From TrEMBL:
Residues 286-402, 674-787 form the ABC3 transporter permease C-terminal domain. The chain crosses the membrane at residues 20-41, 279-302, 327-355, 375-403, 424-443, 674-695, 715-735, 755-777. This is FtsX-like permease family protein. Pfam families: FtsX (PF02687), MacB_PCD (PF12704). It is a multi-pass membrane protein.
Length: 794
């Protein structure tokens, strides 16, 4: 029986090739998009689940309770030792410190290799918590001794040109010789680790003394603490027990710490701690369902329309003894065949576009990574679901047709599903398309607003480069003078970090005007020289810039600081004292700068102070003439290497660094545009199929209208008017949904664009124009056909 169903289904597909193509291609796009979204979701949902004891591995985070709660994926340097020695909750505890762009100097194949690499300094227990195996399959046994390290196979090949490098050495930051004691297999892509080189934690004091200290006074985002808990531990009880630590070790701090344990499975999906927002995964999952839904709607509309032509076939089948169930399963089998073809074509499309998808999101997804029972289960489930949803309604309609009416040719629209049903489904298609278009417009507007709005500082043609940590201040001052003398260099400033897109954010407690207690809020310390304001074009609101000095005596603050303090005007701040960083900074406010955006638009502008200290500079910023960038950069590099022959001149443009803050949004915007375009394209396929049906059904009507004097434009209006009405209804339904969801999305930005009414009008008009283009060809073809030929059509 089933074999017979499939034979008949194949014959019907061959008989109606155009409609079969529209259905298969529309569903294929839906399936292909769903497969790509499945790969995307599967990738993000599988982070760090490959460890043996992943259910017992936790990261310890800090909630900083001031006037607002801030979330840090870190703890004070002394926390790990106390948690390890004073509590009995964990089998293992280990710190890891991430340091970016450290200089690596190695001998490889008779040549010297110099690279900048991201290094992770780890305590020995780190590789006992996480099972990252060595290339020989064994566990890491070393790193309990100083000057030892392990590399991944990829890093080993990059540095030494081979992977068998145990016993080889490299020089770290022109300081320590590190021996390679193990080579790790390349790390899975789905892990929180972004380093491929690991060095013993006992070397951390050479790079970052704070991380190796027993300090409870502050935290650094570079330092993280991981623990493997004993079996059957109650995380809530542990967090409750840790509440005693701040009172014991930070009794006078206004910054109240609350230590929280975060499951390793939650790290990648928690936006409070730099993970991605799970809402994004939900959104793209829903978009995938939308695309399949639109394709299914196309199928239902075209299939119910075709039932009108197949009514005599149905009548004959019923007269010859077919039951309703036979007809239902006959149509469902046809749907299954179409869906099966669509799955195969969709998988091919996904395979073709996977490299572009990977490039967009900087992923390395491959089909072989997910060729598992879970993937095939998803694919088969999607095939059955789409077949049932697409085929069941037309199958029911077809099986209900009365054989007498069918054989007499008196079947009308209501007998084949009704025009009302088709209109409802078309409205649903249009509504989904309008929601996607509006969402794309608003996301694009917000990103453009964030990148192109005046940030309060100049980011154009400014080059940022790291300063070697061990440089003598006098030598560096000499280099600054030489760099400032290069033609094309307009300004030079040494600083801890640039404004906006900063890589070295430093928040600290502050006392104002000799008050006995520290303020409830944190202040961001921008350590910079006297050229900082001029180089980055930061405006003074009142007062003056600080003078060059060998000691910290003068400081600048921003207007936000005055608002937090509660003064009536910025002038009241001048001459007042500021004490910060535990008394290391004790200076007089001599100027107030206008507020500038030091972080992305998701956060409010924070209180900032700018103070000079040549021992704390980490970067140099050079404002260069945009007309001579290439030659100026060449001259800067030459001067740099003459001063620092053992270092690499590595630089970034500040505008690129600022734009990177919205890199994720840019990628999701690109994907939203693609999916919105696909939704519209699939909808257009369905409209084209429907217009073929309507034109064929109303051929004689068109001929009669032409005989009675109707012109081409009036006939075109006849066909488009109904669709335009449906679009307006869809727009009215889609507008509140789109407005609500995008309003919720914009709540994630402290500074955001407005949702204008014309976004919705533009989306509706765009759908109207696309619809007009889609249906015009067949309509004009019918309208320009000779009425004699139209009236002779059977």
């Amino acid at each position: 029986m089933f074999k017979n169903y499939l034979k008949i289904a194949w014959r019907n597909l061959r008989k109606r090739k155009v409609f079969a193509f529209i259905n298969i291609f529309g569903l294929a796009i839906g399936f292909g998009s769903a497969i790509l979204i499945y790969l995307f979701l599967n990738y993000h949902l599988s982070f760090d689940k490959f460890h043996e004891n992943s259910d017992r591995i936790y990261r310890v985070n800090t909630e900083e309770h001031r006037d607002e709660v801030e979330y840090e994926a870190s703890v004070p340097p002394a926390f790990a030792k106390v948690f390890r020695e004073d509590y009995e909750y964990a089998e293992k505890v280990a710190k890891i410190v991430f340091q970016d762009g450290l200089l690596i100097d190695a001998k490889a194949n008779g040549r010297t290799v110099k690279l900048k690499e991201d290094i992770a300094f780890v305590e020995a227990a780190f590789f006992q918590i996480f099972n990252f195996p060595l290339s020989n399959g064994q566990k890491v046994a070393g790193l309990d001794a100083p000057n030892t390290g392990v590399l991944t196979e990829k890093a080993a090949a990059r540095i030494f040109g081979k992977t068998n490098v145990v016993g080889e050495t490299f020089v770290l930051n022109n300081n320590k010789t590190i021996e390679v004691v193990g080579v790790l297999k390349d790390l899975p892509k789905t892990t929180f680790l972004n380093s491929e080189m690991f060095v013993s934690f006992q070397n951390i004091n050479d790079i970052f003394q704070f991380a190796g200290s027993e300090n409870w006074g502050g935290i650094s985002s570079n330092l993280q603490c991981y623990t493997l808990l004993n079996p059957s531990q109650n995380v809530g009880a542990i967090e409750k027990a840790l509440e005693e630590l701040p009172a014991k070790h930070r009794p006078k701090s206004k910054n109240r710490h609350v230590y929280k344990l975060q499951s390793i499975a939650d790290i990648h999906l928690n936006p409070e701690y730099t993970g991605i927002d799970p809402v994004i995964l939900w959104v793209f999952g829903i978009i995938g369902l939308f695309l399949l839904a639109i394709a299914c709607i196309n199928f239902v509309n075209i299939s119910t329309a075709q039932t009108f032509y197949r009514s005599k076939e149905i009548g004959v089948r019923k007269v010859l003894g077919s039951f309703k169930t036979h007809l239902f399963w006959q149509f469902l089998s046809e749907t299954f065949v179409i869906s099966l073809f669509a799955v195969l074509v969709g998988a091919g499309l996904a395979l073709v576009f996977l490299p572009s998808f990977n490039s967009l999101f900087e992923l390395e997804l491959a089909f072989q990574d997910v060729l598992s029972l879970k993937f095939f289960g998803f694919l088969f489930g999607a095939l059955l679901l789409v077949s049932f949803l697409s085929g069941s309604y037309p199958g029911i309609i077809m099986s209900r047709i009365a054989p007498v009416l069918a054989l007499k040719g008196k079947v009308n629209h209501n007998d084949t599903g009704g025009s009302s049903t088709r209109k409802f489904l078309v409205v649903a298609q249009f509504a989904i398309s309008i929601v996607l278009i509006v969402s794309t417009l608003i996301i694009s507007r917000q990103i453009d607003y964030a990148i192109n709005t005046n940030l309060g500082f100049d980011k154009e043609s400014i080059v940022m480069s790291e300063i070697p940590a061990d440089i003598e201040p006098a030598k560096f001052e000499s280099l600054k003078l030489r760099l400032a003398g290069i033609p094309g260099v307009e300004n030079v400033s040494a600083c801890l970090s640039s404004p906006g897109g900063a890589v070295n954010n430093w928040g600290t407690g502050v006392k104002y005007n000799n008050r006995p207690e520290a303020e409830e809020f944190n202040i961001q310390a921008k350590i910079a020289d006297e050229n900082y304001l001029e180089t980055f074009d930061i405006e003074l609101a009142t007062g003056r810039n600080f003078f060059k000095s060998d000691s910290i005596t003068e400081v600048l603050v921003n207007e936000k600081f005055g608002k937090k303090i509660g003064v009536a005007s910025s002038e009241e701040l001048l001459g007042k004292k500021i004490e910060a960083n535990g008394g290391d900074i004790n200076a007089t406010i001599v100027g107030v700068v206008k507020d500038f955006h030091d972080t992305n638009f998701t956060q409010e502008i924070r209180p900032v102070m700018i103070v000079a200290n040549q021992n704390w500079y980490g970067e140099i910023g050079l404002k260069i003439n945009h007309n001579s960038i290439k030659s100026t950069l060449g001259a800067i590099e030459k001067e740099w290497l003459s001063a620092f022959p053992d270092y690499i001149f590595d630089y970034r443009f500040l505008d690129e660094r600022v734009a990177e803050q919205y890199e994720t949004e840019q990628r999701y915007l690109s994907l939203s545009k693609i999916f919105a375009g696909l939704a519209i394209f699939i909808g257009c396929l369905g409209l084209y199929g429907l217009i073929l049906f309507f034109v064929g059904q109303r051929t004689k009507e068109i001929g009669i209208r032409k005989v009675l004097g109707s012109n081409v434009m009036s006939i075109l209006t006849l066909f488009t008017a109904d669709f335009f009405k449906l679009i307006l209804i869809a727009g009215a339904l889609a507008t509140p949904f789109a407005w609500y969801f995008m309003e919720q999305w914009l709540q994630g930005y402290a500074y955001r664009t407005k949702i204008h009414w014309w976004f919705f009008v533009l989306a509706i008009v765009a759908v109207m124009i696309i619809t007009l283009i889609t249906i015009s060809y067949q309509t004009l073809k019918a309208a320009t056909t000779s009425p004699v030929k139209s009236l002779r059509t059977e």
